[in-house]
Amino acid sequence: MIERDVPIAIVGAGLGGLTAALALQHAGFRPIIHEQAAVLGDVGAGISVTPNATKGLESLGLGSVLAASADTPPQQVVRDGISNVQLLVIDRRHVRDRYGAAYYMMHRADLHGMLAAAVTANDAGAIRTGQRLAAIAVDAGGCHLDFAGGSPGTAAILIAADGARSLVRTRIFGDAGARFTGHIARRVLVPAADAPALARIPGSVVWTGAEKSFVRYPVRGGQLINCVGLTRSGGWRGEGWSQSVPAADMAAEFAGWVPDVTDLIAAAPGGMVGSWGLFVRPPATRIVAGAMALIGDAAHPMLPFMGQGAATAIEDGVVLGRCFAESASVSEALARYEAARLARCQLIQAESAAGADRLQRAGPAGQRFDRSEDDLGIFDYDPATVVI
Ligand SMILES: Cc1cc2nc3c(=O)[nH]c(=O)nc-3n(C[C@H](O)[C@H](O)[C@H](O)COP(=O)(O)OP(=O)(O)OC[C@H]3O[C@@H](n4cnc5c(N)ncnc54)[C@H](O)[C@@H]3O)c2cc1C
Q1: Burial 147-166 (b: 16+ CB within 10 A, else e)
Q2: Nearest-5° angle of CA 314, CA 119, CA 379?
């Protein structure tokens, strides 16, 4: 059995780091999360929490708080962005019967907030903010961490949940770094009161076209309409990975599309939308090195065409906690974690990338819907019971 007081450092308090911390706490450990942001939070956008992720969150005791704050879409519809022709309807009314857990859509900040609250309820000092990992050295004494804005520390185990730009992945795993995929995401939450009536109907609608797509779904009980436009570009000129841009830029990208889309863009609060350049890394061939493990986007950054980035980060955290709970040594726990996660995440990463070209084709007959999350069995997975 692994000593429960072994020092475990988690870098990054995103959805992956928080889930891992909660899962380790459930197994009796006392991990410390080091987060670079001065204030905890997540981006103002919606997120879909698919049944595979819901099962993991429910196993950590978050079922009721999740059900209270998330929306349950009755259906998902795909339409052509120019003609509005309906291409596909997926009935989501019986998801819990089919997969054993609900398919939710919610505000990211609500999901992030419930995870952070659960972690700090178990250990008030578990999350340290304003601590950016700046350097790392590993020797027989452990992982030595230097933080910009905090005292250095040493941990026996390091869980890197520091996102697609992971410093740990670059420094320890020798990866060249993230590359721009040519995809850009524009995101905005439109107050329902300002949205056209059709935009307020429950469930998600995706409009697709040549190298573009636009999705909208209500969150917070229909008070806000989450809108995401995915377009392509030869380069990313922003200084960082995200920035705020005039909604007029997004309107130009979707000019000539159905009014449901253009009216939502026109209703962007303050006439601004968030803009993200989407970066990935090559599929990892290992996610464990010594007493260090990568989780979430640090391990498998992916395009959002299957809505599985956070879901797989949540799966990682739950599986990692179980591996630590059920192993005799740290090396056994991490080997079991890597064996359990690598192939699944490589598959989802690859399918998410291929999903772009399947969805964003010209004309109503162009799209292909033959490899959905349902078809691939992605929702069947239960991180709380999968063999590890
Ligand atoms: C447009 C879009 C839509 C998406 N929609 C969905 C969806 O519907 N469903 C879904 O499952 N996924 C979705 N995703 C993917 C999802 O957002 C990510 O996969 C997920 O947030 C990854 O979580 P993470 O905790 O691994 O990383 P992150 O959320 O990136 O968190 C990393 C954390 O580490 C911190 N950090 C970084 N470096 C350091 C450092 N050196 N020191 C200390 N702290 C550090 C950061 O501040 C951050 O808090 C979407 C992504 C995009 C772009």
Answers
A1: beebeebebbbbbbbbbbbb
A2: 20
Model confidence, pTM: 0.97
| 225 and 238 inside one domain | yes
With respect to residue 296, please indicate whether it lies within any of the assigned structural domains. yes
Give nearest CA residue, ligand 1 atom 33: 12
Digit-coded pLDDT (tens) for 4-26: 999 999 999 999 999 999 999 99
Residue nearest to atom 2 of ligand 1 (CA): 304
Give the ranges where the chain is alpha helix by DSSP (H): 15-26, 51-59, 63-69, 95-99, 108-122, 167-173, 247-253, 259-266, 309-326, 330-359, 373-376
Shared domain check, 159 and 207: no
Catalytic residue among 103, 217, 337, 381: 217
Q: Which of 188, 226, 297 best tests ligand 1's pocket when mutated (most atoms within 8 Å of CB)?
A: 297
Shortest-distance Cα residue to atom 51 of ligand 1: 304
Number of domains in the chain: 2
Domain harbouring 255, CATH code: 3.30.9.30
Q: Residue 81 domain-assigned?
A: no
